[in-house]
Design brief:
heterodimer, A: 389 residues, alpha/beta, D-Amino Acid Oxidase, Chain A, domain 2, 8 helices, B: 478 residues, Ubiquitin-like (UB roll), FAD/NAD(P)-binding domain, 3 domains, five-stranded parallel sheet, 11 helices, 28 strands, 25% helix
Amino acid sequence: MKSRAEVVIIGGGSTGTSIAYHLAKMGVEDVVLLEKGYLGSGSTFRCASGIRAQFTDEANIKLQKYNIERWKKLSEELEYDINFKQTGYLFLATSEEEVETFKNNIKLQNKFGVPTRLITPEEAKEIVPPLNTDFVLAGAWNPTDGKACPFKAVFAFAKKAREMGVEIYEYTPVTGIIVENGEIRGVKTEKGTIKTNIVVNAANAWAPIINEMAGLDRELIPIKPYKHQLVKTEPIEPGQIEPLVCPPAYNDSYVLQDGEDGGVLCGTGLEYGPTYDMNPTYEFLREVLKWATTIIPALKYVHVIRQWAGFYAKTPDKNPAIGKINYIDGFYIAAGFSGHGFMMAPGVGEGIAELIVKGRVTKVPLDLEWYDPHRFERGELRSAAFQIG
Amino acid sequence: MRLTEHPILNFQERRGKKVTIYFEGQPIEAYEGETIVMALHAAGIRVLAHTFQKDRPRGLFCAIGKCASCLMTVNGIPNVRTCITLVEDGMQITKQKAKPKLPTTAKPPKWKDPEKIDADIVIIGGGPAGLMAAIYASDAGAKVALLDENPMLGGQLVKQTHKFFGKREQFAGVRGVKIADILEEEVKKRENIKVFLETSAIALLQEDDTKLVVGVRKNKELVEFRGKAVIVATGAMERMIPFENNDLPGIYGAGAIQTLMNTYGVKPGDRVLIIGAGNVGLILAYQLIQAGVEVKAIVEALPKIGGYFVHAAKVRRLGVPILTRHTILRAEGKEKVERAIVAQIDENWKPIPGTEKVFEVDVIALAVGLRPSIELLHQVGCQIKYAPELGGHVVIRDKRLETTIKGIFVAGDSAGIEEATTAMLEGKIAGIAAALSAGIASPEWLKEIEKAQKELDEFRSGPFGRKVLKGLEKVVVE
């Protein structure tokens, strides 16, 4: 194991590997990434793979519009097909009130260049043929949203990062962070100590534990792990439920076909926590199948083959904490993504790399004030980021 | 083709009412009480599907619901395990060639609360271990729910036409199929045992002190089983070995062939090559000959026969060559097995060029060992350890077969590959131990556990028990 590094990244999910890749790309030669399990094992490999710009506030819409442009070119850039597909997100309104909310959201999204439009139930049925439109009044449809393969994306970021000299250590839990006179000096792991002056906390659901190791209060950046779950069905013919389909009023439930094999992923808003328990629950299975077969009735003919859990690393306003931590020189954080880490990874990785290398973010529309990790201690909450299942 | 005459079994008696099912729209004669795939085989239909990606034909492999080889579309529902689904008059069965397409006009299902079954002890698996566990748990005073995903009780006993060894109380001299009948009768006699057939356990969960087994009956109804203790007796699954075209229809696990001919009276084929000269391979050869099927040879990679001498001698007397130090190189055939190519191997297990032999067969039987079915135990979080002597990954448990999770027990092949006799003894121990752990059985029952443990020790003391004992050393803790 290396004994010294320019930057040490803690956390090998989509965020951590993206930061590693972008740092190397910007010419940082000595980057080390530490992951307590295997790459992606925390939350990325457990996610539903969706990528969208249909948010309801300026900061997230701008960041995600940029991210979709990044995702579009990522396979070419990383020289590995990560299977990004612009299959869209289709939100469904079930009341007149919701239709009005959709209209306002669409106006805001259009203002920042996201081409969402209001569609009729008939149009929705054309996009998703097995959809049950009985409960649908209108849809918010952005065809530029999409999905990518989380497994391939993490693999591709890590592969490219390694090619450019990044050292990645898996199964290497961090046991301590050395801070002297308010400055980062090193990272202790189960396999040895690495001297460094810069640490990025990309541990998402486990970020408060890392902060504590640096001597900060866990509540300073109050990220809490909430257990969310998914079930997946056996594969069905691709092209039937390609977009992510979600009636938010139905407990934030959603369905979408996995871009890899065509199995249907089904999620719902039932969550547990804060907890680090990752066992799937029977209650969720029953709950999610009720919603899934309401949205797509023909799913009653399809078998569920898998169920698993993962964490939404939630902040009080469901917006991530991204930026410098002012109390310790050389300590950065990109965590608390509240279910949006995967879709935000390319831009966030690039933004953090810019911040470390140039001291400011110029290229990525990453609003550091909006995502300020210190906003919580000031009691300043943002409007909640739009979150589903 | 259906068997009409058999020296031991009488199928005419067993067959139910005649019904008609439809395969790709064509009517096929079937009998109530038989599974879909058995009726198809009786009608000569062996190719059940084509794979999505490479369009390769698929046929039956395990015949007990443990693999995905027999999935077909039944009454419009894709991916139905046709080996454990019973025929019904008018059933429409089609081959799958592509991933299914959903109907666009379906209506949401009507959700109702699942049936709830409360018991003291829930037993998953109605084979020799599960049946014995149910009988003894019940006698020790427990209310038992016993579920099995197959349409009949007995597990693999229902296809064993040979007589058992051992002691009289271990059913020595009795045929396996008869033992199944006896145990089933015993279970039926006991009012505090409730049996649920065609019911798959899809999850094993802990709810505080209660264990929840989530069941799905007949592929559609949810049933919740709750108990103070659970015994997992889910048996084993047939192993597969790598060779060219090992996925051709006509290549079956040995157990599947026994199911075809001994349980449902369907002739598996005309000419068979058996891979593996352990007890299963040897007994299978004898059973095939009983059913009027020609056995071309038994191929064994090891330098000596693995099974009991008496079985091997019987097979040899019937003129079946046993080729030790041989392996199968490949199967050939267009849609189904037409021949098998076998070769001798050297000390490094490499085929020796020039020693190839061609066998014109329509069935290749794989009798190359079993792997314990530990999925539910793994899912609930029991500690698992690798013990090749017991067939692979098995759970850590104590001498009374309680796993690392209090109240969850294991018995039979799912605890490690052995024999039906040891499975029954383990079932007895686990059944009583579970009743003790649930606070139901009186301490006197400890004597019965000790007795069964002694019998197990005796049974395992022979040369064939050595390997098992070595495996048990790794996984049995105090």
